[in-house]
Every structure is written in C-alpha cells, then in structure tokens.
Amino acid sequence: MVGRPAFSPFSLDEIDIEPLAEEAWRDGYRFIERMKHDWATGENRFDGPGERLLGAFEGEALVGFCGLNRDPYVSELVGRIRHLYVGRDHRKKGIARDLLVRALDGAAYWFPRIRLRATPSSRGFYRRMGFVEVDEVEATHARWLD
C-alpha cells in the first residue's frame, strides 16, 4: 500500500520539475513554463510576505505543486493561487485538494481574499473547494478567507 505524499515548501533551484513540466506541456498546460520563466528571471519566486510554493512528494519525487502569491493583477491586497498541478499518475487521490488546503492554511493573515484563473476542466474542483465564479479581470474564481 502506498502512503500519502509528504507536503513541504520547495525551491525550483533545488527540485527538478522537468518531468512534470514535460508531462504538462504534452497535456496542453503551458502555465508551468511560465512558472519556470518567472522563477528564473526573479519575477516570481514565491518569496513575498505570505507567499509559498508547496510540493507533494512521494519519496524524492515531486508529484504535484501549488503556489500562493500576492495577486499581481489587482491593487488591493489579495492572494492568488498559481500553478496547481498534479502529475497524471497521481490524480484522483486528493493530492490537489491537499495542496490547495495547505497553500491556504494561514493565508488569511496575509490575504483576506484569494483569486485564481481556472481551466474549464478544473472549475468544478474549485467550486467544491469553496471558490465562487467571478467576472473579474484575470480571474475566474475567488474566495473570501475567514
């Protein structure tokens, strides 16, 4: 029986995400390439107040990740879920849910509200996680934190 993955913050300087990035590219998800670019240029390293990049690990292998940033698309203090991805062989096991819950844990201290832009296939997931659909610039869903 395989146990639950371990969840912890990680750095793209220390962990190789290429296997997941290549899989995501083949599946049509381009956002990981943006995450890699933004990390390399320093534009987004998930290192601001309240920000984090969390990984799900099975042993040494990264099987999923999720980031939380200050939302760059609005002037008010709002968080943004970014780059939630779970490898194909690890889906439907609750890993995305666990990553999102951990990313949001304690986020209310920094961000009263969280926004995100969901793909059509992930919108139901975010609704189940308490997000509501919004008609806002650069966002499809939002959630107020308690």
Q: Explain this structure to me?
A:
The protein is of the alpha+beta class. It has one domain (6-144): Aminopeptidase (3-Layer(aba) Sandwich). The longest helix has 11 residues, at 31-41. Helices cover 25% and strands 30% of the residues. Strands 1-2-3-4-5-7-6 form a seven-stranded mixed β-sheet, sandwiched between helices. β3 (61-70) and β4 form a beta hairpin. The protein contains four helices and seven strands. Residues 15-146 form the N-acetyltransferase domain.
Query: How many helices in DSSP terms?
Result: 4
Radius of gyration of CA atoms, rounded to a whole number: 15 Å
Please identify the structural class as seen in this structure. alpha+beta
Q: Can you tell me the CATH superfamily?
A: Gcn5-related N-acetyltransferase (GNAT)
State the CATH topology. Answer: Aminopeptidase
CATH class: Alpha Beta
What fraction of the residues are assigned to beta strands by DSSP?
25-35%
The pLDDT mean sits at 95
Described by the principal axes of the CA atoms, the overall outline is: globular
What distance lies between the first and last C-alpha atoms, to the nearest angstrom? 37 Å
The largest sheet, given as strand count, sense and whether it forms a barrel, is: 7 strands, mixed
* Shape-level CATH architecture: 3-Layer(aba) Sandwich
